[in-house]
C-alpha cells in the first residue's frame, strides 16, 4: 500500500485530497506547512508528495528545495497542487525535478489519473 503526503495550508483542500485518495486505497498523511512536511518525512516512508505552491512562511518551491537537499528524500516524487502556475514557478519547479502539476480546483478523476501515473512509474 502506497503512502501519499499532502501538504496544503488550506484545511478543506487537505480534506478533499484525503477523501479522494483514501477512496482509492492510498494511505494519506497531511501537513499544513512546509516545516511540518519536512518533519513528517524524517519519520515516515512516503511514496509521493503532493505540495501546494502558495503557503505562508515556506512556500512550495522553498519546501521542495529543502526536500531536494536531503539525500534520503531526494528520490521521492513531488507533484505541485497549485492555483498559480506562472512561468517563473514552472521554471523553478522544473529545475528542482517536480514530477507534475495539478491545477486547483481539480476534477477528482483527473487528479487521480495524474497521481497514479506518477506513483505507479
Characteristics of this structure?
121 residues; alpha/beta; five-stranded parallel β-sheet; 20% strand; globular
Report a brief summary of the structure:
The chain is α/β, with parallel strands linked by helices and 121 residues long. 45% of the residues lie in helices and 20% in strands. It has 5 helices and 5 strands.
Question: What this model shows, in words?
Answer:
With 121 residues, the protein is α/β, with parallel strands linked by helices. 45% of the residues lie in helices and 20% in strands. It contains 5 helices and 5 strands. A 5-stranded parallel beta sheet has the order 2-1-3-4-5. The radius of gyration is 13 Å and the shape is globular.
Question: Which word captures the global form?
Answer: globular
* Helical residues, percent: 40-55%
Gap between N and C termini, in Å?
A: 15 Å
Please indicate the percent range of residues in DSSP E strands (runs of 2 or more).
15-25%
Could you tell me the number of beta strands?
Answer: 5
**What oligomeric state is this?**
single chain
**Secondary-structure element order, as H and E?**
EHEHEHEHEH
Low-pLDDT parts are none
Major β-sheet annotation: 5 strands, parallel
Summed over residues and divided by their number, the pLDDT gives a mean of 92
In DSSP terms (H or I, runs of 4 or more residues), the helix count works out at 5
* Structural class by helix and strand composition: alpha/beta
The largest sheet has its strands arranged as 2-1-3-4-5
- Cα radius of gyration in angstroms: 13 Å
